[in-house]
């Protein structure tokens, strides 16, 4: 399954166009390699997604073409989440 479609179907990102933009900016890695929106995602892959100052690492559990809202959270598991704090100190 394409990366942008997976992100939308799993509801990690609400819109496929936004998922495409983020992945084409190089802010998503699959198994440690920078991914494009057309990259293939399969079960067992590890996604690293950078949203602003938040970095999330997810493990792909399943890839289904369509799922109900309640089942979408079962398509991935969260490995870790971290926040980068970048405060500008002006004194």
Could you explain the architecture of this structure?
- There is one protein chain.
- With 91 residues, the protein is of the alpha+beta class.
- It has helices at residues 3-9, 16-24, 69-72, and strands at residues 28-30, 33-34, 46-51, 54-60, 76-83.
- It has a 5-stranded antiparallel sheet with strand order 2-1-3-4-5.
- A hairpin with a 2-residue loop joins strand 1 and strand 2.
- Helix 1 (3-9) packs across helix 2 (16-24).
- The radius of gyration is 14 Å and the shape is globular.
- It starts with a helix and ends in an 8-residue tail after the last strand.
Q: How do the strands and helices of this protein lay out in sequence?
A:
Elements: H1 3-9, H2 16-24, E1 28-30, E2 33-34, E3 46-51, E4 54-60, H3 69-72, E5 76-83
Antiparallel strand pairs: 1-2, 1-3, 3-4, 4-5
Largest sheet: 5 strands, antiparallel
Low-confidence stretches: none
Average of pLDDT: 89
Count of discrete alpha- or pi-helical segments spanning 4 or more residues: 3
Beta content: 25-35%
Task: State the order of secondary-structure elements, H for helix, E for strand.
Answer: HHEEEEHE
Structural class: alpha+beta
Write down how many β-strands occur, each being a DSSP E stretch of 2 or more residues: 5
The portion of residues assigned to helices is 10-25%
Radius of gyration based on Cα positions: 14 Å
Termini gap: 51 Å
Q: Give the CA-based shape.
A: globular
Biggest sheet strand order reads: 2-1-3-4-5
